[in-house]
Amino acid sequence: MGGSRGRERLLSCESCRRQVPRGKAVEFEKRTVFSTDLRTGDNVSEVSTRTVYYCISCAKHRGIFEIKKRQMQRRNERRS
Predict the structure, then answer these.
(1) Parallel, antiparallel, or unpaired for β 10-12 and 19-21?
(2) Which H or E element spans position 66?
(3) 64 or 35, greater pLDDT
(4) Cα separation of 43 and 69, whole Å?
(5) What are phi and psi of 58, to 5 degrees?
(6) What is the pLDDT of residue 3?
């Protein structure tokens, strides 16, 4: 008796703000790099990731599926 029955939670598309069920939403991790870009030893950089969700049409339009495919290929190459 899993909890997969019933109504799924609705998520908002990052691009068009369309309400999409969680099962149909495309999950994508956005990485943001903050850096002071100093040439000295005091250079401070921070990498933050956040998960964003897209509806199918926006993900297709933005090429998210191809980006995710390339990321998975890179991960598999590292493991081999």
Answers:
(1) antiparallel
(2) helix 64-79
(3) 64
(4) 33
(5) -70, -40
(6) 63
φ and ψ at residue 56, rounded to 5 degrees? -60, -45
6 DSSP assignment: S
**Strands 26-35, 45-54: parallel, antiparallel or unpaired by DSSP?**
antiparallel
Looking only at the bridges linking them, the beta strands covering 45-54 and 10-12 are unpaired
pLDDT digits over 17-61, tens only?
999 999 999 999 999 988 887 777 788 889 999 999 999 999 999
For the chain, what are the domain ranges? 10-79
> Any residues with CB less than 8 A from the CB of 64 and at least 6 apart, and which?
26, 28, 54, 58
In this prediction, residue 2 carries a pLDDT of 57
- Beta strands per DSSP E along 7-80: 10-12, 19-21, 26-35, 45-54
pTM: 0.74
Side chain identity, residue 46: E
